[in-house]
Structures are given as structure tokens and as C-alpha cells.
Design a protein that fits this description.
alpha/beta; Rossmann fold; N-(1-d-carboxylethyl)-l-norvaline Dehydrogenase, domain 2; 2 domains; globular
Length: 289
């Protein structure tokens, strides 16, 4: 969200782990380099959730999908009427889960809940107070629950994310959760490689061999079939990569290679996980597949 600070938006940062944010508080913000440059000030950096969300118009929840339920329960007692919760990313069914948890915890505030189907940027994080913006995603969707609220939710976001389009429902954003296919097929297909030699290969360009691309396409076909059954229009995996990054080739293999090795390729920054105890499995299987 550092880019929002460069655009003049008032930002607060919350993390329950004080150690993760201490240096950011000392700096008073984030130094941004790459596609955008400057200093993104933060008016507050705190482990206290109530202080962070008090009076906020939009509460952006950026955490793993397997933490959405916990985030919702934590927010229950501090939300106020008129606030908007935006999940980045929503995973598959994130807004539904947050609505359920807020209701179960007795939340009485009238709030909007919405989700974005992807992170809006790719970036490097060389230091706790310094980020390098490398890619602005070209294709983003936002859906709200209920769906009728999406235009109200998008209102304050359009100036920040002009490429965002309104999705008909969270079925569309949830079934465009590409992590569930991109990450899991690669991890499972390379389990012997990971356990035998560790992470000494490029996750996409080398991990997706011809046989694994066949597996990926089969898994993606199942996702598309589920979407069709529910009447949701979602892109295939290769179409999504081309639309999102504007960089690729005629085949998935060529696209993975270019996304990894081109100077502007976002996957050059993607490390290969050292084991199956990684979010590509422990998050993307239960919250995607």
C-alpha cells in the first residue's frame, strides 16, 4: 500500500507482531523505488488494532487467506457503521468467510465487505523500510458481498486502481484465485525435487516442465468447468497471465520463461519454497482448492 502514500492518502499500518513494524515506525513510513519513487508517510504504525481502524474509511486486510477468519473476529468489536473492509487478496470465498465470522461474533456495525482477486503490485522488499515496485498488475477484479454494493465499494478505489473492474460476484473473484492452480500443481509435482535437493531451481521457469504444464492445464480445466457450472466467466490460466502482466508468449512454457527472465518479469523475484510447509500449500490448498 506504499503507493497510496505516494498519492497522498492518509495511511495507518497495523501488525500484531511489534518486531515486524518497529523499524517502519522509527522511519515514519516507507521509501519507495522502482516504477514509483518517493517517501510514503504513515501517520500511525501500531500493534493496536482498535487505534489503527478508528475513523478509517477503508480497512485493507492484507494477510494469508487462512488468517481471514481470525482477522474478522479481531475486527468485530472495533468496526463502526459505514466502514469498508477490503481483502487483498480474497482467496476463494474470503468475503463469505469474513461475513460469517463477523455475524457469529456479534458484530452490529453496518460495514461493506469486498475482495480483490490479486495483489495490485509485484515488488521486492530489500529492507523493512524500503520497497521496490516492479510491476503494476493490469487486470484486477473487485467483488463485494452482497454484490449490489460493489459500485459503492469501488468509488474510493478507482483513483488508486484505475485498472480495477467490478466483478459480478465473489464467485468470479474466488474462481479467479490463480494461486490455487499455479502454486499447488508446481509444489506437488516437484515434491521429490524439493525434498531431495531443496529449492535450487527457478520456481516457474524451471519448475514447470512440459509434464507439469500438462498437469496445470488439466487442473485449470477443472476450475473453468466449475466456473461454467455456476455461470461465472473467468479467464484461463494463460489468458490471465497475459492480461495481468502484459508479458508472455504463445505457450505457457514460453510465458513462464519470459516472466522469470525478462528484465521486467515479476517472477524473477519469486523464490522457490524450501519445503511443503509453505503458504503455497498450507494456505492455497485449504483456501483455494
Amino acid at each position: 500500500m506504499a503507493n497510496l502514500g505516494l498519492l497522498g492518502y492518509r495511511l495507518r499500518l497495523h501488525d500484531r507482531d511489534e518486531a515486524r513494524i518497529a523499524r517502519v515506525r522509527e522511519r515514519g513510513g516507507l521509501d519507495v523505488e522502482g516504477l514509483a519513487k518517493g517517501f510514503a508517510p504513515l501517520e500511525l504504525v501500531t500493534p493496536q488494532l482498535a487505534t489503527a481502524v478508528d475513523g478509517a474509511d477503508v480497512i485493507v486486510v492484507v494477510t494469508g487467506s487462512h488468517f481471514h477468519a481470525d482477522a474478522a473476529r479481531s475486527l468485530t468489536g472495533v468496526l463502526r457503521d459505514g466502514q469498508s473492509i477490503l481483502l487483498i487478496q480474497g482467496g476463494t470465498g474470503g468475503s463469505l468467510l469474513v461475513r460469517r465470522e463477523l455475524r457469529a461474533a456479534g458484530c452490529r456495525a453496518a460495514v461493506d465487505v469486498s475482495e480483490m482477486d490479486n495483489y495490485p503490485y509485484s515488488l521486492g522488499w530489500p529492507e523493512p523500510t524500503r520497497v521496490k515496485l516492479t510491476i503494476v498488475k493490469r487486470f484486477l477484479q473487485v467483488a463485494s458481498l452482497p454484490a449490489s454494493r460493489v459500485e459503492r465499494v469501488l468509488g474510493p478505489l478507482r483513483a488508486v486502481f484505475p485498472q480495477v473492474v467490478a466483478a459480478p460476484s465473489i464467485l468470479t473473484t474466488g474462481l479467479t484465485n490463480m494461486n490455487a492452480t499455479l502454486h499447488v500443481a508446481n509444489m506437488v509435482g516437484n515434491i521429490g525435487r524439493l525434498e531431495g535437493s531443496g529449492n535450487a531451481y527457478r520456481f516457474y521457469a524451471e519448475g514447470y516442465t512440459p509434464s507439469l504444464i500438462t498437469l496445470l492445464e488439466a487442473l485449470d480445466g477443472e476450475r473453468l468447468a466449475v466456473a461454467r457450472a455456476y455461470g461465472a466467466q473467468v479467464p484461463g490460466i494463460h489468458e490471465w497471465l497475459l492480461n495481468t502482466y502484459g508479458l508472455g508468449g504463445d505457450s505457457l512454457r514460453e510465458t513462464f520463461h519470459r516472466l522469470t527472465h525478462e528484465p521486467t518479469g515479476p517472477y524473477q523475484w519469486t523464490p522457490t519454497p524450501p519445503s511443503l510447509q509453505h503458504k503455497y500449500v498450507i494456505e492455497d490448498v485449504p483456501c483455494g482448492l
